[in-house]
Each structure stands twice: as structure tokens, then as C-alpha cells.
Amino acid sequence: MANTTNQVNNRPTAKTGDRRRRHFSSGEDQRDYDFEVLEVARVVRVVKGGRRFSFRTSVVVGNKSGKVGLGIGKSKDVQSSINKAYDRGVKQLKDIALADNTIPYEVRAKSGGSQVMLRPARLGTGLIAGGIVRLVAQMAGIRDVVSKRLGSANKVNTARATIEALSSLKIRK
Fold first, then answer.
1. Which residues have a Cβ under 8 Å from the Cβ of 105 and sit 6 or more positions away?
2. What is the pTM (predicted TM-score) of this model?
3. pLDDT per residue as tens digits for the range 90-107
4. Residue 52 Cα distances to 43, 45, 82, 171, angstroms
5. Which of 58, 128, 130, 172 has a CA-to-CA distance to 17 between 20 and 30 Å?
6. CB of 162 within 8 A of CB of 132?
7. Lowest mean per-residue pLDDT among 4-13, 89-98, 138-147
8. Distance from C-alpha of 62 to C-alpha of 81, rounded to nearest angstrom
9. Rounded CA gap, 43 and 40, in Å?
10. Nearest of 74, 71, 73 to residue 44 by alpha carbon
């Protein structure tokens, strides 16, 4: 988008769309963190003229060395909903206290109907975790942990519970 010039003071004025940060513009990747898409759901809003379809995307963002976040974005097309979810995930990054390649002690957390239990594991055990918990742990940089998901299998609530459990960890001295 080209900027226009204000006739009064001869300064460039930005159009509304110019103020937003854009990702993947002209084929270049400007992302600082790794991310994985949890789910893409087609959602419907009923209006007077009928139904309007859009996409809701959940993304886990992390640097694989102690930071992880969850973002949710909605848009009329999938790629822009992924971009929105990524941006929101970066804003909600949480620091995780790691002890070598695992967590320092057992922790539990709950979000909605999902409950997650994480236990430290010995070096070389690996990630013994289900899909969503495994994904969040990988994005956080955890290599050895044992986990159990209890209650609801909702992907977003399970990811929230896992991030909440990891962010509640403190290094004991």
C-alpha cells in the first residue's frame, strides 16, 4: 500500500491498513519463534442475511528454551487467522523454569474441564505425553517429562492447562 501525502503540511499519512504488522509479506518469513497449529475450526455466525463462515485457529508458540504461549485467531481465511493467532501467542509468552531437560517437580493445573498433571523424568526418558501436552512441552524445550491429561479432551483447554502448569513452576533453592 502506498502512503498518500497530506496537502496541508506535506507529510505522509498512513492508511488504516499500513499500521498493522504483516507476516509472510512478499514471501519472506519474519517469525522469531517456532509455532505449531493445534487446530483449525470452521465457525459460523448467523446474521440476518444467512450464515457467515470464518476460521478459528489455535497456535502454540515457543522458542524451545523456556518460553511458550498460546494464541487464538479468527479470520475469513486460514492464513490470516494463523497470523493473528501467532501474534497473540507471542504477546502471551510465559517463562518456564526448567531443571536441565525436565521440570523441577510435579505440578497440576486445570482449565475449563481439562486437567493436566506433569511429573519430572530422568534424563533419556523422553516426552511421555499425549498430543497437545507433548506439543506444548516441545515448544517449551522440555525433553524429559511424564504427563497425564484428565477430564475433558478439549484441545484449547488442555493447552491452557499445560501452559498454566508450566508457568507456575519455580526453581527451588
1. 120, 169, 172
2. 0.78
3. 999 999 988 888 999 999
4. 8, 5, 19, 48
5. 58
6. yes
7. 4-13
8. 18
9. 9
10. 74
